[in-house]
Design brief:
Helix content is about 40%, strand content about 15%. The protein is α+β, with helices and mostly antiparallel strands. It has one domain (about 50-164). Strand 4 (about 145-150) and strand 5 (about 155-164) form a beta hairpin.
Length: about 160
């Protein structure tokens, strides 16, 4: 008899039972019945985003781009942020790198956004992938990825990252 080991996903199979609309018989089947290839590619980008280091400050590139003029040089943005936040690196990173979960799903009327179990599963997934991504890019730096409620002016569950 051979040994069999299952290495569980970070996604709990039971979360499927929380879905308001199930498109299939499993998480895998639901995904195959719900997404186009461009949905998969864009979701992969969200899980493994561009990271930018500006003078030792770490940002999700898209979040920094959304601050002020999207075409402005990142160094100039950082200069303004240093002025706004009294040169407090942690506060600058936290402010730029905080994003409410609802902002990931703009224009989507999804009743699952009211389900705490689903929201926390989403947070766990982001923390897992962003932590791995940041460890890959900055193996010697201690960058924290976490989520909580109403962080840095965001409404509801919010993901945040900053260097410890």
């Amino acid at each position: 008899m051979r040994d069999v080991t299952i290495h569980k996903s970070i996604v709990k199979h039971e979360i499927f039972q929380e879905f308001m609309m199930q498109r299939g018989v499993s998480l895998y089947n639901h995904s195959a019945n719900s997404n186009f290839i461009d949905d998969f590619i864009s979701a992969a980008y969200v899980l493994c985003p561009d990271i930018i280091d500006v003078d030792g400050h770490v940002f999700i590139a898209d979040f920094l781009k959304s601050v002020g003029d999207p075409e402005e040089d990142p160094s100039l943005k950082l200069k303004g942020l240093r002025s706004d936040f009294g040169n407090d690196k942690r506060k600058i990173e936290q402010w730029v790198n905080s994003w409410g979960f609802g902002s990931f799903f703009i224009g989507k009327d999804c009743k699952n956004m009211d389900n705490e179990k689903v929201l926390f599963q989403f947070g766990d997934i982001l923390v897992y992938f962003w932590t791995r991504r940041l460890k890959e890019v900055f193996p010697d730096r201690n960058i924290i990825v976490e989520y909580g409620e109403n962080l840095m002016g965001e409404e509801g569950p919010t993901i945040i990252l900053y260097e410890a």
